[in-house]
């Protein structure tokens, strides 16, 4: 240890010790410098200490932190959830959700809305090699709800084909039309009706429709039972 006397003492004769480490012939020595409390000399003294440490100008700005992934950029669509292995459900994805949807590695999307698919969404599908299956079901309100059984059945055949997985099912809000497709899938998975209705109501909430639940109750899955549920975590 050595004492550096390059700095003048303070006006009251006091000294503050500053430890400075430097490499010297394979071992470290500690240099103690007396730093004056005179504000006019502080900047010069700090520069001297920093040079002893092999550093740059202490008065310079700190380097910018490393970029961090912004978790807020990964926003899931409305009512997003996992249904089963390789199957997801949600409301209609928009451009704010694309970064999140991209992380799912989708092969297919089932859209249950009859309107033409938005251009921005179509471009997103093309850029990511995602196939679109569109089964247009009108979003009527009770008591004028008409759920086409044949269309639901066709959508389920796409859902059950593992070559289409990972797959996202969506309608406008991810409540009624999507809820009916998922509810009929649950029947095929041998869920009891009370569990099917509980799941449906969890997404539909105050907008739950008796007509949707009646449709799921009466839906005949016998024509789909020949399709193996090789993807399903509910397989028995």
How would you characterize the overall build of this protein?
- It contains seven helices and eight strands.
- It has helices at 39-52, 98-102, 119-128, 149-160, 176-188, 193-204, 210-218, and strands at 2-4, 16-24, 27-35, 81-84, 87-90, 108-111, 131-134, 167-170.
- The chain has a five-stranded mixed β-sheet with strand order 4-5-8-6-7, with helices on one face.
- Keywords: Hydrolase.
How would the blueprint of this fold be written?
Elements: E1 2-4, E2 16-24, E3 27-35, H1 39-52, E4 81-84, E5 87-90, H2 98-102, E6 108-111, H3 119-128, E7 131-134, H4 149-160, E8 167-170, H5 176-188, H6 193-204, H7 210-218
Parallel strand pairs: 1-3, 5-8, 6-7, 6-8
Antiparallel strand pairs: 2-3, 4-5
Helix pairs in contact: 4-5, 5-6, 5-7
InterPro entries: PFA-DSPs, Prot-tyrosine_phosphatase-like, Siw14-like, Tyr_Pase_AS, TYR_PHOSPHATASE_DUAL_dom
Region (Disordered): 1-23
GO molecular function: inositol-1,5-bisdiphosphate-2,3,4,6-tetrakisphosphate 5-diphosphatase activity; inositol-5-diphosphate-1,2,3,4,6-pentakisphosphate diphosphatase activity; phosphatase activity
């Amino acid at each position: 240890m050595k004492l550096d006397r390059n700095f003048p003492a303070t006006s009251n004769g006091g000294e503050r010790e500053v430890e400075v480490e430097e490499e010297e012939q394979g071992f470290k020595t500690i240099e103690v410098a007396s730093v004056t409390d005179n504000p006019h000399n502080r900047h010069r003294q700090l520069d001297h200490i920093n040079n002893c440490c092999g550093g740059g100008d202490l008065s310079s700005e700190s380097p910018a932190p490393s970029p961090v992934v912004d978790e807020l950029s990964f926003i899931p669509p409305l009512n997003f959830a996992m249904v089963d292995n390789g199957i997801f459900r949600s409301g209609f994805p928009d451009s704010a959700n694309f970064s999140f949807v991209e992380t799912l590695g989708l092969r297919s999307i089932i859209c249950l809305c009859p309107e033409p698919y938005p251009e921005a969404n179509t471009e997103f599908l093309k850029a990511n090699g995602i196939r679109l299956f569109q089964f247009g079901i009108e979003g009527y309100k009770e008591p004028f709800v008409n759920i086409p059984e044949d269309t639901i059945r066709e959508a389920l055949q796409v859902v059950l084909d593992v070559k289409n997985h990972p797959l996202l099912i969506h309608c406008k809000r991810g409540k009624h039309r999507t809820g009916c497709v998922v509810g009929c899938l649950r029947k095929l998975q041998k869920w009891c009706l009370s569990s099917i209705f509980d799941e449906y109501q969890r997404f539909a909430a105050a907008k739950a429709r008796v007509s949707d639940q009646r449709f799921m109750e009466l839906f005949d899955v016998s024509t789909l039972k020949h399709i193996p549920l090789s993807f399903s975590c509910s397989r028995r």
